[in-house]
């Protein structure tokens, strides 16, 4: 019983721990464990893109109806990020949400098994909705955890490295679909039935991973920690009520538009290449999709390297601008030229999602957990844009002209990239967090200790292996806010 008591998931938000000041070395294990989650939902998302085309073939449904998969998957995100997952995050902490999300993912995978066996598209959409709730819960916790756990200076680089493994997952899934599930069985009902074993394996794996998270001593990060981090870096010089955090809401809008465009392009990639490139089968289309997702993953690793030398906000502006530049010709180009345009688009999409998360959360302080729910909730754009693209493609009986839909949403997301680079209220919090010495070993001002802590009226106590710092008045102030 002692071990279960020690592993209690209940965490207060008014006590400060040293989790806001973790060094790179101290943050390696928790970051590595959380990064496994990014591969999981990359694999799930990549498998969904592959199944989209094959449901059209096997079940004889049109493009607009097949978008129900994306609608169910991404439509679950705001329910999780603004609802149940965000409530658990604010009342119990990050670890509890990780376990909750993994359990939902496992349950949804078990439900998917019989639905695939009996070729029930509606039932599979319901299973995907449960999986989407699980993955939405994981993203609600994992994205802010990666940005906060470790030196603030490297938050954009950390989340892009972790998200790169998401890209690896999106590569593995279509490769599996092309070479294992749908090879020479493009029109066979048995093709979908073979996928059931993957979902069974996923269910077993995520339940085991949930147990690992429960017993792992990962540091918990409280609202007080995040308030301290923002104040120590002078990133939130003006405290405003949550409803006036306009930077956050603009970031959530950008996430909605960007994610919708990204999901629509990937979801109809196989349709695009089979229609515009001569002699391209659905199986070859899945292979080309795997290559495009490989370009996406490579773009993330490349983006991290570029961020080592340039400000993340500059890199974000450049990458999103190039998404617009390369998706536009895909509307009119055909054959290998059109496919190349989509490859380049996916390459430059790579860093956009995680960088919006990191920049949008800069300087939120005590609002970080709540704010992450809004940014992750923007992922529901993936439920809105693909059906629009599918409807346009059905109207023209061609997917290529419908690529104008993601182009329009990229342009809308571009407004945030412009503001975060050229509007002072957006730019300063990003730059101040990016220049902070907090958590950097050997850097002056990297940690608050001894007399500096006393000057702030803080009293250090030991709790659960982490240094918990409380201040009567300060805690009440945080609780009141």
From TrEMBL:
GO terms for cellular component: plasma membrane. It holds the Pfam family MFS_1. Its main location: membrane. Signal peptide: none annotated. Keywords: Cell membrane, Membrane, Transmembrane, Transmembrane helix. It is found in: Cell inner membrane. PANTHER family: L-FUCOSE-PROTON SYMPORTER, PROTEIN TSGA. This is L-fucose permease.
């Amino acid at each position: 019983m002692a071990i279960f008591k020690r592993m209690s998931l209940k965490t207060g938000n008014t006590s400060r721990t040293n989790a806001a000041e973790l060094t790179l070395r101290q943050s390696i294990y928790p970051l590595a464990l959380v990064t496994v989650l990014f591969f999981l939902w990359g694999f799930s998302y990549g498998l969904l893109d592959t199944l989209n085309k094959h449901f059209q073939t096997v079940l004889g449904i049109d493009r607009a109806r097949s978008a129900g998969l994306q609608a169910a998957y991404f439509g679950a995100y705001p329910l999780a990020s603004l609802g149940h997952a965000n409530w658990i995050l604010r009342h119990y902490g990050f670890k509890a949400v990780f376990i909750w999300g993994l359990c939902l993912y496992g349950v949804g995978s078990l439900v998917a098994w019989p639905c695939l066996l009996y070729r029930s598209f509606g039932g599979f959409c319901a299973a995907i909705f449960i999986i989407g709730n699980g993955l939405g819960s994981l993203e609600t916790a994992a994205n802010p955890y990666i940005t906060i756990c470790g030196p603030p200076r490297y938050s954009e680089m950390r989340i892009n490295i972790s998200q790169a493994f998401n890209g690896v997952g999106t590569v593995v899934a279509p490769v599996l679909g092309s070479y294992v599930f749908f090879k020479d069985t493009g029109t066979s009902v048995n093709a979908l039935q073979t996928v059931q074993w993957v979902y069974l394996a996923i269910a077993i794996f995520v339940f085991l991973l949930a147990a690992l998270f429960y017993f792992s001593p990962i540091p918990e990060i409280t609202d007080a920690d995040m308030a301290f981090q923002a104040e120590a870096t002078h990133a939130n010089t003006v405290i405003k009520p949550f409803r006036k955090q306009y930077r956050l809401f603009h970031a959530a809008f950008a996430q909605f538009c960007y994610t919708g465009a990204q999901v629509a392009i990937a979801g109809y990639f196989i349709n695009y290449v089979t229609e515009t490139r001569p002699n391209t089968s659905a199986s070859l289309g899945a292979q080309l999709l795997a290559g495009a997702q490989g370009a996406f993953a490579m773009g993330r690793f490349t983006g991290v390297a570029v961020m080592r030398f340039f400000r993340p906000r500059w890199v974000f502006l450049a990458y999103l601008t190039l998404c617009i530049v390369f998706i536009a010709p895909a509307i009119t180009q055909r054959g290998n030229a059109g496919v190349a345009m989509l490859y380049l688009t996916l390459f430059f999409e790579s860093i956009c999602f995680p960088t919006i998360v990191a920049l949008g959360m800069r300087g939120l302080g005590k609002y970080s957990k709540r704010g992450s729910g809004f940014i992750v909730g923007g992922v529901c754009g993936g439920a809105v844009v693909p059906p629009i693209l599918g409807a346009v493609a059905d109207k023209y009986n061609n997917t290529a002209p419908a690529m104008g839909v993601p182009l329009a949403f990229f342009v809308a997301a571009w407004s945030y990239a412009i503001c975060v680079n050229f509007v002072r209220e957006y730019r300063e919090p990003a730059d101040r967090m990016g220049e902070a010495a907090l958590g950097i070993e050997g850097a002056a001002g990297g940690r608050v200790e001894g007399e500096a802590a006393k000057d702030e009226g803080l009293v250090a106590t030991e709790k659960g292996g982490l240094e918990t710092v409380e201040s009567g008045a300060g805690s009440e102030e945080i609780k009141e806010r």
